[in-house]
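Lab channel / #folding
Pinned by the channel admin:
"Please post every new chain as: sequence first, then the C-alpha cells as a reply. Keep commentary short and put observations after the output so the thread stays searchable."

First post following the new format, from NK:
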Amino acid sequence: MKIPDNVINFLLNQGFVIISSIDNNGFPHVACKGIVSMTKEGKVHIFDLYRAQTLENLKRNPHVSITAVDEHRFAGFCLKGKARALHEKELSKELVEAWEARIANRLTQRLLKNIHEEKGHPRHPEALLPKPEYLIEIEVEEIVDLTPQHIK
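Reply from TO:
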C-alpha cells in the first residue's frame, strides 16, 4: 500500500509511536518505539531496542498497528499491517545510519529544550539506549486517519 507524503511527514515528526501487537493470551500489548524510516511503498522500519515482549509477540502473530497522535493539532494516524524482525546481519548500513541520525536529532532537541529551561528528563536517555540488534519491518496494509471528520 502506498503511504501518502502527509502521513509519512506526520509520523516521522513524532517523538515516538505506539506499536500494538498481540500477546500469548490474545490481549493487546503496546510499546513506545521510534520510527527509523518509512517508504512511500508502504514499509515502516522501527528499531526495538529491548528485545522483550514485542519480538515474542511477532513470532506468534505478525499483525500490528502503529499509532501516533498530535494532541495540539488534534490529528493522528493508525497504520495496520504485518511485521517481521530483521536481525543484525540483515540490517542495511542506511538503516543503521538513519537510526543514528534520529538519535542524534533527539539528543540535540533535548539539549536545546534544556537550554531554554523547559523541564524534561534530568538525564539524556537517548544517549543510554542500547545498540540495536534487530528492527521491525512493517508492511502497511491499511491507514486510518484518526482526525475527527468535522475537523478536517
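NK: The domain at 5-88+133-151 is CATH 2.30.110.10 (Pnp Oxidase; Chain A).
TO: also worth noting, The helical segments are 5-12, 53-60, 93-115.
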